[in-house]
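Sequence, please.
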C-alpha cells in the first residue's frame, strides 16, 4: 500500500495509490465511519493526525479499500489532476544520520563510525515532490543526499531491536539537501552543523509513504539519485552501517520516539553539488522517485 498527501485547489487530504490513480482516503474514511456509526473522520485527516490516533495502519487502509470496493465507490473517490504534497509536511522531528554508509564515510575522508551519528534537521525545511529547492545567494556549494526515511507510527522507549519495526508506520524518500560549505566551516570550528541542513526547502520528501505490507525488510532496497538524468548516487540499503531496527532501538535508549518522527538513515557515496537550473531525482525501490528542481533564491 502506498499512501500520499495530495491537494486539489484549496482541498488537501490523504490518499492512496491504486493502478496509477490517487484515491481520496479522507473522503472514503468519512463514508466508512458513517456506515459503521463510528465517531467520524478526524478533522483534516492528515497523515500526522492519523499517526497520532493510531489508525495509520495497513489494516485500516485495507479496511477502507475493501469498503470502497464493496460499495463500488471507486470512481467516486478517484481524484483527477491533483498535486502530490510532502506526505508529512511538518513532522515533529527529523532525526538524520551522518556517515551511515562506509563508502560515503571514505569519500568524506572519515572513518566509518562505531556509534551512529545522530543530528536533527529542521521540520520547516520539508517540501513535497516537484517543489523547488531554493539556494540563497552566496550560500556556496549545495549537495544532494538521497536517503531512505522511516516514519515512526507507535511511541516507544527502550525498544528492542527485534521489535523495532513494529514501531515503523512506513517509509519514504528524503533528499537531505546540504549547504556543504557552511557545514564544512561549522565542522572545522567544532560547531553543530544544524543550520547547513535546515535551510528552508532543504528537505524534499515523498512521493509517497510505502507501508510495511510492501516493505517488510528495509535493509535490501536499491536507492539512487540522478541530476538532469545523469546518475550520481547508486547503492542499496544493505550497505547501511546501522540499519533501521538498530537505529530505532539505539535512539529509544535515550529518548521517546513519537508518532510522526522521521529517521532519515543517511546517504550513500556519490554526493555532488547542484546548481540553479538542475533537476534532482531521488529514488528508492518500492517507494518511487522524488523529483525537485533547484532554483536561485535571494
Ligand atoms: Mn544525510
Amino acid at each position: 500500500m502506498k499512501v500520499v498527501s495530495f491537494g486539489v485547489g484549496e482541498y488537501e487530504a490523504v490518499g492512496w495509490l491504486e493502478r496509477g490513480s490517487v484515491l481520496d482516503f479522507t473522503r472514503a474514511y468519512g463514508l466508512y465511519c458513517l456506515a459503521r456509526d463510528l465517531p467520524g473522520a478526524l478533522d483534516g485527516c492528515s497523515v500526522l493526525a492519523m499517526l497520532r490516533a493510531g489508525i495509520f495502519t495497513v489494516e485500516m487502509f485495507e479496511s477502507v479499500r475493501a469498503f470502497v470496493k464493496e460499495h463500488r465507490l471507486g470512481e467516486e473517490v478517484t481524484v483527477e489532476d491533483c498535486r502530490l504534497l510532502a506526505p508529512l509536511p511538518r513532522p515533529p522531528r527529523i532525526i538524520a544520520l551522518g556517515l551511515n554508509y562506509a563508502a560515503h564515510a571514505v569519500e568524506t575522508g572519515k572513518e566509518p563510525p562505531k556509534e551512529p551519528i545522530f543530528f536533527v534537521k529542521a521540520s520547516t525545511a520539508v517540501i513535497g515532490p516537484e517543489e523547488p529547492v531554493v539556494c540563497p545567494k552566496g550560500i556556496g556549494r549545495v549537495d544532494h543526499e538521497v536517503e531512505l526515511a522511516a516514519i515512526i507510527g507507535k511511541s516507544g522507549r527502550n525498544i528492542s531491536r527485534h521489535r523495532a519495526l513494529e514501531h515503523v508506520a512506513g517509509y519514504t524518500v528524503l533528499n537531505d539537501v546540504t549547504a556543504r560549505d557552511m557545514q564544512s566551516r561549522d565542522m572545522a570550528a567544532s560547531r553543530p552543523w544544524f543550520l547547513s541542513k535546515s535551510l528552508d526547502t532543504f528537505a524534499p520528501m515523498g512521493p509517497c509513504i510505502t507501508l510495511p505490507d510492501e516493505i517488510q525488510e528495509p535493509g535490501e532496497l536499491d536507492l539512487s539519485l540522478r541530476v538532469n538524468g545523469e546518475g550520481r548516487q547508486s547503492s542499496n540499503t544493505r550497505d547501511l552501517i546501522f540499519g533501521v531496527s538498530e537505529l530505532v532501538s539505539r535512539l529509544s535508549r535515550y529518548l521517546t520516539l513519537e508518532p510522526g518522527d522521521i529517521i532519515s538513515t543517511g546517504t550513500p557515496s556519490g554526493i555532488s553539488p547542484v546548481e540553479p537550473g538542475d533537476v534532482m531525482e531521488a529514488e528508492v525501490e518500492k517507494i518511487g522517485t522524488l523529483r525537485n528542481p533547484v532554483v536561485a533564491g535571494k
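The mean pLDDT is 96.
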